[in-house]
Structures are given as structure tokens and as C-alpha cells.
Amino acid sequence: MSGIAPGTRLRFSAFTQGFNCSNTLGCFGGVRGYWDEKLGELYVFRLADHVERLFESAHIGMMTIPFDRKQIADAIIDTVRVNRLDACYIRPLVYIGYGAMGVHPGNNPIRVAIAAWKWGAYLGDDALASGIRARVSSFTRHHVNVSMTRGKISGYYVNSILAKQEAKADGYDEAILLDPEGYVSEGTGENIFIVRRGILKTTPLTSILEGITRNSVIELARERQIPVVEERFTRDEMYVADEV
Questions:
Q1: Catalytic residue among 38, 118, 152, 168
Q2: Entry pTM
Q3: pLDDT of 82-106, one tens digit each?
Q4: Model confidence over 106-131: pLDDT tens digits?
Q5: Which CATH class is domain 130-239?
Q6: pLDDT tens-digit map of 1-37
Q7: Do domains 11-117 and 130-239 have the same CATH topology?
Q8: If you placed Cys at 141, which of 150, 177, 181, 223 could pair as Cys (CB 3.0 to 4.6 Å)?
């Protein structure tokens, strides 16, 4: 590990592959830290699972992270501690460094950066109280043989960015993407659940990211004896759901 520095002082070469063609192979994590007022402590949500997914994403992208899992987890904790954050979003980022250009990065080094900052509710505090307005996007989620959706790969999010921009331009808060066969896939940055007739249903792990929050929701629902079904569903079933 090279150490910790203010984000505004970091320098990257314009020839860093992560900013050029091979940016599609960068991968990242989206980790939350939650403050417990009663105990006066910060808890990083499912850190080991997030680190494991980061390594899996790198493997899918044919990158070898030059640190082990414990080193990455410790670096995440150190970054949060140094920033003295009481609640935060943490982004570990794996990218291809300076070296060969073009679509084949060759033997370019694999770099890791970790950032942490304050970030409230993903779709805003009002969304937690009042819900959001979402539209079905004109953009389609990736086919499993176009991009491997189990990886949280940086370049895959171009699809999400375009869908999000379209939704915002049309006056909505979020976009819902369908898979290549027309079934509901996921949002631009979140998995989707619907509730209909007392059953909690979510898209299976076919064309979606294997969300850690998704897994937590399923576990909590089953602990509370709420029926959970993982199966494909159509947009019209989503339209008539009791909750989305």
C-alpha cells in the first residue's frame, strides 16, 4: 500500500489505461458505512462480502489485484478512519495503470484506489419518505454474452448512465431497465423487488448484478416468514404490483 492522501492531490497520467480504452475493465465497489448513535461507532456494511465481490469482478475482468483481501479490507477501514467520517460511502476502485495503449492492456500494472465521502440516501432523503417516480427505459440491460453481469465493471455503467440521463431529462427520478427478452432486469444502480398479493418477488441472477443489499433483503424477509420468489417477471406485472 502506498499510503493515504487528499483526493484533490492525487495525480494520474492522461495515458493511464483506466481513463482510455481499457476503462471497461476497471471495477469498483459501493460500500456503505453507518453510524450507530447509541454506541458511537461506525459500522461498515458487509465489508467482507464487498471485498469478495471486488475480487470476483476483477477476476471476471481478467485483472489480478496486487493485494490480498485482508489488505484491501484494512485499507478501507483506514481510509474511513483517517477521514473521520460518521456515515459514508466508500469506493474501492481497481483500474489498469500506465503502459500499453489500445484495447489490449498487455502487462500494464493493476492499480487500486480507495475513496470515502459523505453521501446520504442514494436517491435522496425525500425518496425514503415519499418514494420516487421511475420510468421503464428505452435502453436495454446487457445480454449475458455481451457483458458478464456478475462483475461490477466500470464500463458496464455507461448503460446505466444513459438510462439515468434519459429518465432525468423526462422528469423522472430513476430508470428501470428490461433485459434483452423484455423482462424486468434492474434499475441503474439498484436491484428491483415487487410485492404482489403478499409475495416478495425479485429478478433472478441472470442479467443483473448480484447485489449485496439484495441478498440482505432476501435474508431478512425469510427470517420474518415473508414468502420470497426469485423469478423473471414482466413490466405489466410490475405495473399492477402493490409495491415496487
A1: 152
A2: 0.90
A3: 988 888 999 999 998 887 777 778 7
A4: 788 999 999 999 988 888 788 888 89
A5: alpha beta
A6: 567 767 666 777 776 766 776 456 789 999 999 999 8
A7: no
A8: 177
Q: What are phi and psi of 215, to 5 degrees?
A: -60, -40
Residue 118 annotated in active site: no
Could you please report the per-residue DSSP string of 74-119? HHHHHHHHHHT-SSEEEEEEEEE-BS--SS--TTPPEEEEEEEE--
Nearest to residue 69, comparing CAs of 21, 29, 15? 29
φ/ψ of residue 153, rounded to 5: -95, 135
Collapsing DSSP states into helix, strand and coil, what is residue 203?
coil
Cα–Cα distance for residue pair 26/54, rounded to 1 Å: 10
Q: Scanning the structure block, which residue is given the C-alpha cell 478501507?
A: 76
Residues 6+ apart with CB under 8 A from 2: none
Residues 6+ apart with CB under 8 A from 186: 141, 176, 177, 192, 203, 207, 208, 209
CATH number of 11-117: 3.30.470.10
Closest C-alpha among 1, 26, 28, 11 to residue 82: 1
Domain ranges, ordered by start, for the chain? 11-117, 130-239
Instruction: Tell me the mean pLDDT in the region 35-55.
Output: 94
